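To illustrate the input format used throughout this study, we show a single complete record. The first block contains the structure-token representation of the backbone; no residue identities are included at this stage. The design step must infer an amino acid for every position from geometry alone.
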């Protein structure tokens, strides 16, 4: 049996998603949702997630109804995290009623009756992004 330290980091990130879900402050989340709904009527919001890992925050934002129209840029300095996000997000989205199309390397379009999201997922250090 492999020791836990031999497991890939992406496996750890996936395993802790439910813990992260419970750890988020629901009052802050509700306040963010109310502000986004009020400020972004009729236009897509642009979001940058730094240290995006395997894409669980994008999944959560869609699942919890935070985003309906957005350009979501997710960067992470670890190539393996980005590769896992690009595998995981389309699978999750299709399982949750989204049509998924690949626009080019690292760019996905997620469409459903609830929204239209362009996700750009790139391996990049934040300083290089800036």
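Output of the design step:
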């Amino acid at each position: 049996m492999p020791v836990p330290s031999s497991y890939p980091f992406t496996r750890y990130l996936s395993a802790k998603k439910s813990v992260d879900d419970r750890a988020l402050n629901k009052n802050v989340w509700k306040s963010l949702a109310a502000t986004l709904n009020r400020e972004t009527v009729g236009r897509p919001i642009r979001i940058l997630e730094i240290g995006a890992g395997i894409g669980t925050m994008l999944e959560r934002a869609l699942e919890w109804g935070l985003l309906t129209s957005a350009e979501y840029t997710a960067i992470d300095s670890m190539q393996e995290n980005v590769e896992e996000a690009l595998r995981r997000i389309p699978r999750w989205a299709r399982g949750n009623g989204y049509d998924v199309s690949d626009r080019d390397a690292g760019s996905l379009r997620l469409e459903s009756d609830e929204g239209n999201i362009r996700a750009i997922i790139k391996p990049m250090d934040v300083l290089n992004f800036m």
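Structural context for interpreting the output: The chain has a mean pLDDT of 90. Helices lie at 9-15, 17-23, 26-39, 56-63, 79-95, 126-129.
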